[in-house]
Amino acid sequence: MRILIVEDNADIARLTAELLRMIDRNHLPMQIDSIVIAGDLDSAVLELAGADVCLCDGRFPLEAGMSPCEAWELVAGKCERQVLPVRCVVYSADAEIAEAARKRGLVAVTKPGRAAEVYAAVTGGARDSGIEARAGIDMLPEQKAAQLNSEC
Fold first, then answer.
1. CATH assignment at residue 33
2. Which of 14, 56, 132, 136 is the most buried (most CB within 10 A)?
3. How much is the pTM?
């Protein structure tokens, strides 16, 4: 599976990718082949063609005059229109955005959520989501970033 992470915060995107890979390594067979990160809408649209799943932040830098919902709606719409449709998962700290995504029929995870919850959403829930304790993964990217920043 190829995952596209659409996230404008490079640290959160990198840590999310790291956590997803760490969880995946504890499962056989592993499901994640590659993870690509896009920091803006233009990059996200370009990278969609080869993705199986798009984990899209609910809020990121927008085109002028565009609302946050319009941004992830644009990405979700492009996911649906691919030759091979890409499953879109919205990941947002804004409960209203997550709820709007759910009403549209998308999977949505509200930040902060547990890493295993994000993994289950991305992989379609086919995995045991209780493994983060065994893998030593108990923080979300935002929590890990805060810890790393406080340690510096």
1. 3.40.50.2300
2. 56
3. 0.76
**Whole-number Å distance between alpha carbons of 15 and 140:** 8
DSSP of 116-139:
HHHHHHHTTS-S-TT-HHHHT---
Count how many domains the chain has: 1
Q: What tokens were used for 59? A: 């809020």
Backbone torsions φ then ψ of 9, nearest 5 degrees: -90, 110
Amino acid identity at 1:
M
Per-residue pLDDT of the chain (152 residues), as tens digits, is 999 999 988 998 999 999 999 999 887 788 899 999 998 888 888 888 888 999 988 876 566 667 767 777 777 777 777 667 788 899 888 888 888 888 888 899 888 778 888 999 998 863 333 333 333 334 454 544 444 343 33
